[in-house]
Write a structure and sequence with these properties.
It is built from six helices and 28 strands. It is mostly beta strands and about 425 residues long. The longest helix is centred in the last third of the chain and has 12 residues.
């Protein structure tokens, strides 16, 4: 299913939120560049003597003010205990309402940051997140860091984000996976998205990290066939963790590691005669992230973390974005509702989901005029609309149903397009539907 992009929303986005990557040791043998081995080990650094904040500041979950979420707001005069430096940020430990918090501060807000000698490398800090489990089409359980993608319909449920630029090699981490009602489901990673008006597979570049009867699997499509051109059922149980490390932003090759850093598989696209991916999986320098879940089934993934190395740079353009009120907060002060068209599938893109949360308090749902809802005279399938409404309410949005019935051909079900009712019968059907 090809998703429609909401360009106005996504064009204003600069903010991603953070996910903490899994901790495994660096593999002992590799033929790929060392930049691909970036699953960070536990940081052994101990806090240094305390530093005082020169001004109010935000504590971020990772080293970036345009990529990571704020986990605490600190005040001028507060004391923080530095652990190490990374780029423009200091990893610190502090107390917030009596609870210990570890995060990242812009080093300009503390006194004498130059006294910190310990320097972190990119393998020791969280990935810049390109996906947020708690802001996705699935149902997120924070207690065990699991997200459940449910498909109550009779068709495959596919989600797909908008294009997310890649300026560093992509990494994908999963702690474990399971399914109900099926034997397979997958996380989709695409470099060229599925087309709208053609056969869905033609011209795409896509990698599926899947569940297959209790083992992880890898499926790769190069746009020349409906089926995967390369399919590998990995000798790795889905009760364990899996880690995919690409070698470069274009994704010309990648390795699969287990939780102990052992290499399970290596794929170099240029050397595969059975694949036509000479420029890699991401030839346009961007990734599209999504899921595919079979009908009447669910896919549960724990510890899902998709991201790239953080640069550790402070971004002036993003300064104050989180600390200033969004449109939703400003509107609420004046009892004003402000909404926009909402698509649950688009929440695969964290930029979209974060912007919806910050700027809007009403989700306008056109699922009520979907051709998949109206199966025949007096026959309806409310699964998709129920799912969209439930998601919107759970995330604090009011719901407005848009277009209960309208004349665009793509919203009229085939059985109605091909019917030959009389004018009065059409009016009666419309009244019944509404």
């Amino acid at each position: 299913m090809k998703l429609k992009s909401i360009a106005i929303l996504l064009s204003i986005l600069i903010i991603f939120s953070a996910c903490t990557p899994a901790n495994i040791s660096t593999p002992t043998q590799t033929s790929l560049p060392s930049t691909a081995t970036s699953i960070p080990p536990t940081d052994p650094a101990a806090p240094l003597p305390g530093l005082t904040l020169k001004e109010d500041a935000s504590l971020f979950s990772g080293p970036g003010n345009s990529d990571f979420e704020i986990i605490a707001s600190l005040k001028e005069g507060d004391t923080v205990y530095p652990m190490a430096l990374f780029g423009d940020f200091i990893k610190v430990e502090t107390s917030v309402y009596g609870e210990e918090q570890i995060g990242y501060l812009w080093k300009s807000v503390v006194e004498s940051p130059g006294t910190i000698a310990s320097i972190l490398n990119a393998n020791q800090v969280p990935l810049k997140p390109l996906y947020l489990a708690d802001c996705s089409p699935g149902t997120y359980d924070r207690t065990n860091d699991s997200v459940v993608f449910t498909n109550p319909s009779g068709e495959y449920y596919d989600t797909e984000s908008s294009a997310i630029p890649l300026d560093a090699p992509l990494q994908v981490n999963m702690s474990r996976a399971s399914v109900k009602g099926t034997t397979s489901a997958a996380i989709k990673i695409l470099g060229i998205p599925e087309p709208v008006n053609e056969e869905w597979w033609r011209g795409i570049t896509r990698l599926d990290i899947g569940y297959n009867s209790g083992n992880y699997s890898i499926g790769i499509r190069d746009g020349s066939s409906k089926d995967s051109k390369v399919y590998i059922n990995l000798p790795l149980k889905t009760t364990e963790g899996i880690h995919l490390l690409f070698d470069q932003p274009s994704g010309r090759s990648f390795r699969v590691l287990d939780d102990n850093g052992n290499q399970i598989e290596e794929i170099n696209f240029a050397s595969r005669s059975d694949l036509n991916l000479p420029s890699g999986l991401f030839p346009n320098g961007a990734v599209y992230i999504g899921t595919t879940v079979p009908p009447h089934s669910s896919f549960t993934v724990t510890g899902l973390d998709i991201g790239i190395h953080s640069s550790g740079l402070w971004t002036d353009a993003a300064n104050g974005y989180y600390t200033q009120p969004g449109l939703a907060e400003l509107a609420a002060k004046h009892n004003i509702t402000i909404g926009t068209e909402f698509g649950i599938d688009l929440t695969s893109d964290p930029r979209y989901c974060r912007t919806m949360k910050r700027e809007f308090n009403v989700a306008v749902l056109s699922a009520f005029s979907s051709p998949d809802l109206w199966l025949g005279p007096g026959q309806y399938d409310f699964n998709a609309s129920d799912q969209a409404v439930d998601y919107a309410l759970q995330h604090g949005w009011k719901v407005r149903a848009s277009h209960l019935l309208w004349g665009a051909l793509e919203t009229i079900p085939d059985w109605l397009k091909n019917s030959s009712y009389s004018r009065d019968e059409y009016i009666q059907l419309m009244q019944q539907y509404i």
